[in-house]
Specification:
Blueprint lengths: L3 E3 L6 E6 L9 H11 L3 E6 L2 H4 L17 H11 L5 E6 L1 H15 L5 E5 L24 E6 L7 H4 L8 E6 L16 H20 L1
Parallel strand pairs: 2-3, 2-4, 4-5, 5-6, 6-7
Antiparallel strand pairs: 1-3
Helix pairs in contact: 1-6
Length: about 210
């Protein structure tokens, strides 16, 4: 399995991330987040699910399978890392959702220290009744979700009504969308919003690693 690695060799912790449904592991969001998180002393490893990796080989543009069918690939990535220090898993959107499906078992097995989701897809856009939260009610792994308040996959008003595990902490980004980008009237820049998410992730990991 191929990994993109960003951050210091002597990092205090590793963060294994998967991409969203339609963008590869080296899209701009993932590149920016990995670079900034690496600057915080955390080593970020990125990988691609098979359907996305196949797009680089000329095998054709395969659509993403259902998230449930990708859990084995995420578990295989965790095994391939062979972490010798605290390992956190997560991802952008769908990648974070898949990670959340395996996080409980991996945490109980002491294979990971926690979960980080960047823009969790609580429901499809404009379909708030199709919730993807059942497994989040009793999730035991320490979890941080960075979420924009105007995310079409789950706004702050939406999420406030959900029954979520007390192990889950949400870092809200005011005026931001699913890619953590603020609206023009949000009062801050995209770079500042990204840095807020990175600082939240790095600080949260520090508290668990200390």
């Amino acid at each position: 399995m191929k990994f993109l690695t960003t951050g210091p060799d002597n990092a205090k912790a590793l963060l294994l991330l998967a991409h969203g449904a339609s963008a590869p592991m080296d899209n701009r969001f993932m590149n920016d987040f990995a670079a900034a998180t690496g600057d915080e002393g955390i080593c970020v490893l990125r990988f691609e699910f098979g359907y996305m990796a196949s797009r680089r080989t000329g095998a054709g543009r395969k659509p993403p399978p259902k998230a449930e069918r990708l859990t084995g690939e995420f578990e295989a990535a965790v095994s391939a890392v062979g972490a010798d220090r605290p390992l956190f898993i997560g991802g952008k959107s769908m990648g974070g959702r898949v990670a959340s499906m395996v996080a409980g078992g991996l945490h109980r097995a002491q294979a990971i220290a926690g979960l980080v989701c960047l823009g969790y897809p609580f429901h499809p856009p404009a379909k708030p009744q199709q919730l993807r939260t059942a497994h989040l009610a009793d999730l035991s792994a320490p979890t941080l979700i960075c979420q924009g308040t105007r995310d079409a996959f789950g706004t702050r008003d939406d999420v406030s009504a959900y029954a979520l595990s007390p192990a889950i902490t949400i870092h809200w980004l005011n005026g931001c969308d699913h890619d953590l980008r603020p609206s023009k009237d949000a009062g801050w820049t995209a770079k500042e919003a990204m840095q807020s998410a990175v600082h939240a992730v790095a600080g949260w990991i520090d508290t668990l690693v200390a």
